[in-house]
UniProtKB/TrEMBL annotation:
It comes from Streptococcus pneumoniae. Keywords: NADP, Oxidoreductase. Residues 51-124 form the Alcohol dehydrogenase-like N-terminal domain. It comes from the Bacteria. GO terms for molecular function: NADPH binding; oxidoreductase activity, acting on NAD(P)H. This is Alcohol dehydrogenase. InterPro entries: ADH-like_N (IPR013154), GroES-like_sf (IPR011032), NAD(P)-bd_dom_sf (IPR036291). Signal peptide: none annotated.
């Protein structure tokens, strides 16, 4: 099959690369190309395969976390480091079709469509790592432990499915852990991010009072997608939110603590909950002059947290039950995420550029491996 990869032109012969393209991601040149991948062998008689399945990736998408991995791989290739590989695959969300099953697999069948189950932090099987299932969804073929995928319903299309797992599992966990009351006022920061979008849509489905904070202009269609949430725009790089009339909230969801934590804390009510699942500057090249990452307000922040009995919660992905719940609540008429663009394998640069360089992007960019 044809698969998209970051390619090392110093190590991979030109004849092995089709549709070579270059794009810039925050100052790093990333070279993408299409390579041939053969179906891996899978011996169902081998006991080592008993609890595993072989999956053909039908479509995949990238998350913010993949950006740093892509940039790091490209930097290694560009600097000709000895540890650089000929190709580097990427992508952590996918939908795939099971093509082979091991003898010990009972709940999954050949032909089933599945998505990754990134359960964390609790182990479900000895020797099977928790957390993100793969960083190489673009490889096209994946051999995975049976616990690391879940089947999806027919009414979830491939494009939503390829964008679903990490955002849905993370948002489901964050909402569960905040013990939200029906009267709580909720703020979601960086609201165009994929995780924030999942959070907003899930909260609205339950009837909560949601305010979404953004630094971008939204179209009417985009505002309609999150209605009746109140969308408030602030200037990008604003050092303090004191000059805007935000008010107070009982719960604040924030995907980027290094950008927003210091400004969030003063806007929490007594016994308020702040929860975060990540940070923006996962690589030094991601840092911008307008980022407010001051540490000299830390003492004031902790004083406010102590005086007001605040809860500061860190969240990493979620449990299997969190993902099962998100799948069970999925409504094709009210999807939790928009699909911004769908491209095929021969549009690798467009896929990466749209995913990471377009501030106007609203939702996920999906690459399909289906004809």
């Amino acid at each position: 099959m044809k698969a998209l990869a970051i390619v090392n032109t110093e190590l991979l012969p030109e004849e092995c690369i089709k549709n070579k393209e270059e794009i810039d991601i925050l100052g790093t040149t990333v070279t993408s190309g299409v390579v041939d991948i053969t179906k891996p062998s899978f011996d169902i008689k081998n006991p080592q395969n008993d609890d595993f399945v072989l999956i053909h990736v039908d479509a995949f998408s990238c998350n913010y976390r993949d950006k740093a991995l892509i940039v790091k791989a490209a930097i290694k290739m560009n600097s000709k480091e000895t540890s650089a590989r000929p190709v580097s695959f990427f992508g952590s969300d996918f939908v795939g079709t099971i093509t082979e099953v091991g003898a010990g697999v009972t709940d999954l069948k050949i032909g089933m469509r599945v998505i990754p189950n990134c359960y964390y932090p609790y182990k479900e099987y000895e020797g099977v790592a928790t957390g993100v299932v793969t960083n190489e969804a673009s490889k096209g073929w994946l051999k995975l432990h049976k616990s690391k995928v879940l089947a999806i319903p027919d009414y979830m299309n491939d494009y939503v499915a390829a964008s679903f797992s990490i955002g849905a599992q993370t948002s489901s966990s964050m909402i569960r852990r905040c013990n939200i009351k029906s009267t709580d006022k909720i703020l979601v920061t960086s609201s165009r991010s994929n995780t924030s979008m999942f959070i907003i849509k899930s909260l609205l489905t339950e009837g909560y009072d949601v305010t979404a904070l953004t630094t971008t202009d939204w179209s009417k269609e985009e505002l309609d997608f999150v209605f009746p949430a109140k969308v408030i725009k602030i200037e990008r790089g604003l050092k303090s939110w004191e000059e805007i009339d935000l008010g107070k909230f009982d719960v604040i969801f924030d995907p980027f603590y290094d950008l927003n934590l210091l400004n969030c804390i003063p806007h929490l009510n007594f016994n308020g909950r702040y929860i975060t699942c990540g940070f923006k500057n996962q690589h030094s090249s991601f840092e911008e002059k307008m980022d407010d990452v001051r540490s000299n307000k830390f003492n004031l922040l902790m004083l406010q947290a102590m005086i007001n009995n605040l809860y500061i919660i860190g969240n990493c992905i979620g449990t299997t039950e969190d993902l099962r719940l998100a799948i069970s609540k999925y409504n094709p008429n009210n999807t939790p995420i928009q699909i911004d663009k769908i491209v095929d394998v021969y549009h690798g640069a467009e896929f990466l550029d749209s995913t990471y360089n377009m501030q106007s992007r609203f939702g996920k960019v999906v690459m399909t491996y289906k004809d």
